[in-house]
Design a protein that fits this description.
The complex is a heterodimer. Chain A is α/β, with parallel strands linked by helices. Chain A has helices at 2-16, 23-39, 41-52, 56-82, 119-130, 144-157, 170-176, 190-201, 225-237, 254-272, 288-298, 348-356, 371-379, 415-421; strands at 85-86, 97-104, 107-111, 134-138, 183-187, 207-210, 216-219, 249-252, 302-305, 309-310, 315-316, 319-322, 339-344, 363-367, 385-388, 409-410, 423-430. Helix content of chain A is 39%, strand content 16%. In chain A, the strands form four sheets. A seven-stranded mixed sheet of chain A has the order 9-12-13-8-7-14-15, sandwiched between helices. Chain A has a five-stranded mixed sheet with strand order 4-3-5-6-16, sandwiched between helices. In chain A, strands 1-2-17 form a three-stranded antiparallel sheet. Chain B has helices at 18-29, 36-52, 54-65, 69-95, 132-143, 157-165, 183-189, 203-214, 238-250, 267-285, 301-310, 361-369, 384-392, 428-434, 461-474; strands spanning 98-99, 110-117, 120-124, 147-151, 176-178, 196-200, 220-223, 229-232, 262-265, 315-318, 322-323, 328-329, 332-335, 352-357, 376-380, 398-401, 422-423, 436-443. The chains are: A alpha/beta, B alpha/beta. At the A-B interface, helix 4, strand 2, helix 8, helix 9 and helix 10 of A face helix 3, helix 4, strand 2, helix 8 and helix 9 of B.
């Protein structure tokens, strides 16, 4: 166990040498990361195939490509992001320099997760490196193959001391959380998020928690159901439903429930064929425990499609449930599997109320041709993010921060937001030592006429003009 | 939430805060605070509170901290008024959706960041600037559309009373409440769920607040403290430096989280600074500072005794007097202090300034970096290079070159700590942003589904080629 504390100590010592401060160094490390991804692409794909039944396409276009894009974008923008940002001055500080100066925090801990084990571990790392930190990575042990791969290949391309990988299960994670970091970035469940924040509190370590919840998907009567269902099916069943921003459940009027089921089925057939088990493109559940959990959610429900599973291959068929009771188990926890419950509501207002009675989700989806419906849904609810008339894609836009609110998390990242998350914005004012006379008015003793408090005091020449 | 039978007895050990919290949550749920007009009315109420109760507040600040009207204006009233005015001027701009650039395939969409209130915000305020450190966060929380529970410090009793009894009359009490109590009550309050907590106080209590917040996954802004180093270079005019350092050190009798806590300088500069500091102190507070109306008093017996203890560290070079009956501590300068002595181990928070000798700038920087990151850091030098070097080789919440905490007067600069001195930030627009959820929104048109075709399975060789083309030629995301 002392090995973990040694690894962290080494990372801190390496950070303290100042090695990561020059932008050139950080860019070199990012370029090395890019080379790693390009050169080891097949190893990465193999690990994803072994862990989650991903194939070359899904591995690249659902995970790896975003990391490559983030690296490109970051390398390009880093000089601009790292610059001092001048700010508006007050009348008294016109002669001075005032700006916000970005600095690294120090040693950052990134705890990855298993559903997009490459992306959700490495994409945050890009921002942490760009901001000039040392980064300790703790990949998820559930995606075992990726965890082992990262431990092998990262040290072959990146500085070994600054960016170590620590592997292990709950005991190792607990151990690493005892160490002091300057920021902890965690992706995972609400339950463990609390544990991470509690551990961070002992050291006053700021945290970014990317958690989850049940992301609602409201389908209005007035919408193009063919397109809507296609997009929903794509986002829901990708990676066999194991996506934190997947539409978790559908809310719709009872009159369109049947159509939705039919159109979802149609899209599923287009995507995965008659038997999804035979499709190269359909994923598997990460492990037996989650397999059983998800299968359990189907029990007692009205199954309109699917509902079967095979324990040996951890395959669960794309499943649609209808007329779901909001009190049932499938509506109590984040599904994180290929099961789509449909809950009937009688109006947009009822849908909004339904959503607001629950924890704030990571994502919220609304399908409608009517802009007023979309506007109302957004204005009267809260969530980490929203896509209207599609699913998931808001998280692919660089300039939109990706994060949760309430139970779905705190803080955000992606693009410039990552750089900001992993930096300290230091407020700076630089004045001159010459001419102290100009400051005379601020020093005591105060002139007699101000004592006793007229408002505003006449000796102070402007609203801000106090500290002259 | 069951309806209460009007005739029923309250249950034993009932939580005193539950009703208030529930009431405020319901008010938030009604959507009342979302409206710009409502927020404007609250902010105008705050403005009126400050104007109409000026004399009352001056009296209470004098009572709590022996604050002069001058200091009260500078560091309490004017800063609060400015924040209210800025929020009133800027609210509509701040509330607007912030459009963002998109990549090519999403060009047809509308992408923006929507600022939303969190819901119920808790502000826990300290005693040293009891008006400022309560109202400035309040401005931000209200502007951002939240309902707010205020927990003023029980230590600054006069101000606590005014905030509890007078302030609510100026605000809509369905969305705002003041709760009172000491550490026990605060602990009980913290068991409840809030949507954001802003706490100003010590790192030690900051940890308790964050741990309590963790149980509910409540984001926190912690404005803490530490020992703010003040490096004084050989290349400087000692009197100018002494004026500035002394003023910012002894302001509010040293009870300022961003005050210069200790000086680092060479022995030669120390010798030049001492008479200059003596001059500055005499100039500001007269020959008998205890009689000066411009010097504050220590907030409580407990802190007075703590500071009296610190007077025994090192050697008193200037001042050193104290008077328990008034909780008065003279503006004091200490020399020959050891790092291990209490005055160099804890945040002083009083009118005592140790001068610590270092032999070089390097040594000063090492000294600073061996310690926790402070809330503020100061460097005095005629040489820009020296100032820049101190900035580049250290870290702190904020930094000012050649002056004390002037950086606090710019609403365009965020105010917050790093490491042990805190997390998060506020002031001006940063307050609004801190108390808002930044919701990432993308409006995708229903049509033009053809562009999405390539993202759907089954993934054949053909689609792979098509994607490669799309990506190579525009380096944009597929989806």
């Amino acid at each position: 166990m002392s090995k973990i504390s040694d690894v962290v100590k080494r990372a801190r010592a390496a950070y303290n040498t100042g090695l990561t401060r020059p932008l050139q160094f950080r860019i070199q490390q990012l370029e090395a990361l890019r080379r790693m991804i390009q050169e080891r692409r097949s190893d990465i794909t193999e690990a994803l195939a072994a862990d989650l039944h991903k194939n070359e396409w899904t591995a690249y276009y659902e995970e790896v490509i975003y990391v490559l894009e983030e690296i490109e974008y970051t390398i390009k923008k880093l000089p601009e992001w790292a610059k001092d940002e001048p700010v508006e001055k007050t009348p008294e500080t016109q002669q001075d320099e005032s700006y916000i100066h970005s600095e690294p925090l120090g040693v950052v801990l990134i705890i990855g997760t298993w559903n997009y084990p490459f992306n959700l571990t490495i994409q945050p790392m890009v921002g942490a490196i760009a901001a000039g930190n040392a980064v300790v990575l703790k990949p998820s042990e559930l995606s075992e193959n990726m965890a082992n791969l990262l431990a092998t290949i990262l040290p072959q391309y990146l500085d070994k001391d600054l960016y170590p990988v620590i592997n292990g299960g709950v005991p190792e994670t607990t151990e690493v959380l005892k160490e002091r970091f300057d920021h902890i970035f965690y992706t995972g469940s609400t339950g463990v998020g609390k544990i991470v924040m509690m551990a961070a509190a002992k050291h006053l370590t700021p945290v970014t928690l990317e958690l989850g919840g049940k992301s609602p998907c409201y389908v209005d009567k007035d919408c193009n159901l063919d397109v809507a269902c296609r997009r929903i099916a794509w986002g829901k069943f990708m990676n066999s439903g194991q996506t934190c921003v997947a539409p978790d459940y559908i809310l719709c009027d009872a009159s369109i429930q049947h159509q939705i089921v039919e159109k979802l089925k149609k899209s599923l057939k287009e995507f995965y064929g008659e038997d999804a088990k035979k499709s190269r493109d359909y994923g598997r559940i990460i492990n037996a425990r989650h397999f059983q959990r998800v299968m359990g959610l189907i029990e007692g429900q009205k199954v309109a499609h699917g509902g079967t599973g095979d324990m040996a291959s951890r395959y669960i068929a794309p499943t649609i449930l209808t007329d779901v009771d909001p009190q049932s188990q499938v509506m109590q926890e984040e599904i994180f599997g290929p099961v789509m419950p449909i809950v009937c509501v009688r109006s947009l207002e009822e849908a909004i109320q339904f959503i607001n009675q629950r924890e704030k989700p990571l994502a919220l989806y609304v399908f409608s041709n009517n802009n007023n419906v979309i506007k109302k849904m957004i204005s009267e609810t809260s969530s980490g993010g929203v896509t209207a008339n599609d699913v998931i894609v808001h998280i692919t836009v660089h300039s939109l921060p990706f994060g949760g609110v309430g139970n779905s998390g705190m803080g955000a990242y992606h693009g410039k937001k990552s750089f900001e998350t992993f930096s300290h914005s230091r407020s700076c004012l630089v004045r001159s030592l010459l001419n102290d006379d100009a400051h005379k008015a601020r020093y005591p003793p105060s002139p007699a006429k101000v004592r006793g408090g007229e408002w505003p005091p006449h000796s102070l020449t402007s609203a801000q003009g106090v500290l002259r | 939430m069951s309806a209460k039978d009007p005739g029923s007895e309250p249950s034993l050990g009932m939580d005193p805060f539950e009703d208030t919290l529930r009431r405020l949550r319901e008010a938030f749920g009604s959507g009342l605070t979302r409206l710009a007009e409502f927020r404007v009315a609250q902010l105008e109420g705050l403005s009126r509170f400050l104007r109409e109760n000026r004399q009352l507040l001056l009296d209470t600040l004098a009572q709590d901290l022996h604050k002069s009207a001058f200091e009260a204006d500078m560091a309490e009233f004017i800063l609060c008024q400015n924040e209210v005015d800025l929020a009133l001027r800027s609210l509509h701009t701040w509330m607007k959706d912030e459009p963002v650039a998109t990549n090519l395939l999403t060009k047809l969409d509308s992408a923006f960041i929507r600022k939303e209130p969190f819901g119920l915000v808790l502000i826990i305020a300290p005693w040293n600037y009891p008006l400022n450190l309560t109202l400035v966060p309040l401005v931000g929380a209200i502007a951002a559309g939240n309902c707010v529970i205020l927990k003023p410090s029980e230590v600054s009793k006069g101000t606590e009373k005014v905030l509890a009894e007078v302030l609510p009359q100026y605000l809509d009490q369905s969305c705002f409440a003041v709760v009172l109590g000491g550490p026990e009550e605060t602990k009980q309050l913290l068991e409840h769920r809030f949507d954001h907590i802003l706490f100003t106080g010590s790192p030690c209590v900051g940890k308790i607040v964050m741990a309590a917040a963790a149980k509910h996954l409540t984001p926190v802004t912690l404005e803490l403290g530490g020992k703010n180093p003040c490096y004084v270079d050989d290349d400087c005019d000692p009197q100018t430096v002494a004026n500035r350092v002394a003023w910012f050190r002894y302001f509010n009798a040293g009870q300022t989280c961003v005050a210069p806590d200790y000086v680092l300088c060479s022995p030669e500069t120390r010798e030049r600074l001492l008479p200059a500091l003596q001059n500055a102190i005499a100039r500001f507070y007269g020959d008998d500072p205890q009689r000066s109306p411009n010097l504050g008093r220590i907030i409580s017996q407990k802190h007075f005794e703590r500071l009296q203890g610190l007077l025994g560290c090192g050697r008193v070079a200037i001042g050193g007097q104290s008077d328990e009956s008034e909780r008065y501590i003279a503006p004091t300068v200490l020399v020959d202090v050891q790092e291990t002595e209490p005055v160099m181990q804890e945040e002083i928070f009083g009118p005592i300034l140790p001068l610590v000798s270092v032999r070089s700038l390097d040594e000063a920087i090492d000294f600073i970096n061996r310690r926790e990151k402070p809330l503020a850091l100061y460097a005095f030098s005629n040489s820009t290079q020296v100032v820049q070097r101190v900035l580049a080789q250290t870290s702190s919440g904020g930094f000012c070159g050649n002056d004390g905490f002037m950086h606090m007067t710019l609403a365009s600069l965020p105010f917050g700590g790093v490491g042990n001195s805190g997390m998060g930030r506020y002031h001006g627009k940063f307050s609004f942003d801190t108390f808002s959820n930044h919701r990432a929104c993308l409006l995708s048109p229903s049509g033009l589904e053809i562009l999405n075709e390539i993202r759907y399975p089954p993934y054949s060789n053909w689609s792979q080629q098509l994607i490669r083309w799309a990506l190579d030629s525009q380096s944009c995301t597929l989806l």
